[in-house]
Design goal:
This protein has 12 helices and 5 strands. Mean pLDDT is 75; it is low at 4-19, 274-281 and 371-378. It is of the alpha+beta class and 413 residues long. It is rod-shaped. The longest helix is centred in the middle third of the chain and has 90 residues, at 148-237. α6 (117-138) packs antiparallel against α7 and α7 runs antiparallel to α12. The chain has helices spanning 11-15, 21-50, 57-80, 84-94, 101-112, 117-138, 148-237, 243-271, 286-298, 312-315, 319-339, 380-391, and strands at residues 303-308, 345-351, 356-363, 395-400, 405-412. It is 66% helix and 8% strand.
């Protein structure tokens, strides 16, 4: 792995060498020093051979400067890492030293990794001009062959371009790895945010459902218990009731208590649900309407359900409204069983412009027609129907008609 400015310089980079970046810098410097020393000794041996084993004073000074510059450049190249200025300075001075050639290569590759055309041009010019000057310093112009300076320029430019290209390739790879790592991190954050949002939506849905359960307990169970209390009270002080009337009142108490027990069991089951367990008794919905009708038919009642400008799926889009209509229908069917057990009950759910309307009608049995439009029986069931509708901003109308039918109309926005 190369230490380029585009690469991630965070914890991942520290892990590459066991969290010891200083050791890595020292290793680079030591390697450059050893390789440069080999190149320096080869060149020194060549000079000694050319001069018969005895170097002139100027050559000795150049050899001393070569070693000094090389040692300094090799010692610095490791710690400077991704410093643009530091690596550029190494390139400038390293062209005057054979010992510094490995350090020069490392710095040129690092600068090429920046993928800057301007920086590449500066590196090529510095290398070519510095190399040409170093060659002329070692061999005076009179000793140079006619094409030797041109060859020096071409070789230096080609070698520098190759090192820059190598650095550009490594820099592109490092930048690509960093970009992919950043994309993965962004995707992970987005996934975490989506999970948190989903959990928040689930929590909100649970809260809304529990709120609906609480309202349903308040409306339905309190209504049923009110019926039980009133009829039980009537049995305690009405001594003039016939046996049939006492039996009918007891049946009313039993039915109301059983209905309250069912509602309470549904509510407690739903409230006991955990994150991993769904309630075994869901709240009533639009699909419950058809089941209520089928249950009533199985018990021998004549009940019909029709839909107009509305479907069960459309009604289920508003769960609170669907549950309210289901509870109202359950109450009205129970009333019809109590007061007109032999009468046919007609239910119509109609989608109006600004509301959903439930129409319920059944013939009034002979001898039970009231003197006014007041409902039959106690009327508490219909009071509960009205309260349920008003909780959602709706209304309810009910009463006997001139056609000897009892009509109920519930309208909910």
């Amino acid at each position: 792995m190369s230490d380029f400015p585009q690469a991630d310089a965070g914890p991942h980079r520290l892990r590459l060498l066991g969290g010891r970046p200083l050791l890595r810098a020292a290793l680079i410097s030591v390697c450059c020093t050893l390789l440069g020393a080999g190149a320096f000794l080869v060149l020194l041996g060549s000079d000694l051979e050319d001069n018969g084993g005895d170097l002139p004073g100027s050559a000795v000074l150049l050899v001393f400067l070569d070693a000094l510059i090389g040692l300094a450049a090799c010692a610095v190249v490791g710690p400077v890492k991704g410093s643009r200025v530091g690596n550029l300075l190494i390139v400038v001075v390293a062209v005057w030293s054979t010992w510094a050639v490995p350090a020069w290569i490392v710095s040129v590759v690092r600068l090429g990794a920046r993928r800057s055309a301007g920086m590449d041009t500066v590196v090529v010019l510095v290398t070519v001009l510095g190399g040409l000057g170093y060659t002329m310093l070692r061999e005076p112009a009179a000793a140079l062959q006619p094409g030797e300076s041109v060859l020096t320029v071409m070789v230096g430019a080609a070698f520098t371009a190759g090192a820059l290209l190598w650095g550009r390739v490594l820099g592109t790879r490092s930048a690509l790895v960093a970009a992919l790592r950043e994309q993965a991190k962004s995707a992970e954050h987005a996934r975490s945010a989506a999970v948190l949002m989903r959990e928040a939506e689930i929590a909100q849905a649970r809260a809304e459902e529990r709120s609906a359960i609480a309202r349903d307990m308040h409306d339905g169970i309190s209504h049923q218990l009110a019926i039980v209390a009133m009829h039980a009270g009537a049995l305690s002080y009405r001594v003039d009731l016939t046996a049939d009337q006492q039996r009918a009142t007891a049946n009313t108490v039993r039915d109301a208590a059983a209905g309250a027990n069912v509602m309470l069991r549904e509510a407690l089951t739903a409230l006991r649900e955990t994150d991993d367990i769904r309630p075994t008794s869901p709240l009533p919905s639009s699909s419950s309407l058809q089941r209520m009708v089928e249950t009533a038919r199985a018990e021998g009642a004549e009940v019909s359900l029709r839909w107009k400008n509305l479907t069960a799926a459309e009604l289920s889009k508003n769960p609170q409204r669907a549950m309210t209509f289901a509870r109202i229908t359950e109450e009205l069917l129970m009333n019809s069983r109590k007061h007109a057990p032999e009468a046919a009950v007609s239910l119509l759910l109609e989608g109006a412009t600004d509301a959903v309307v439930l129409h319920v009608s059944n013939p009034i049995p002979r001898g039970q027609r009231p003197r006014s439009s007041e409902p039959l029986g106690t009327g508490l069931g219909l009071v509960g129907v009205t309260e349920r509708a008003e909780l959602l901003g709706g209304s309810a109308r009910y009463g006997a008609t001139v056609l000897d039918t009892f009509e109920v109309e519930v309208r909910i926005p």
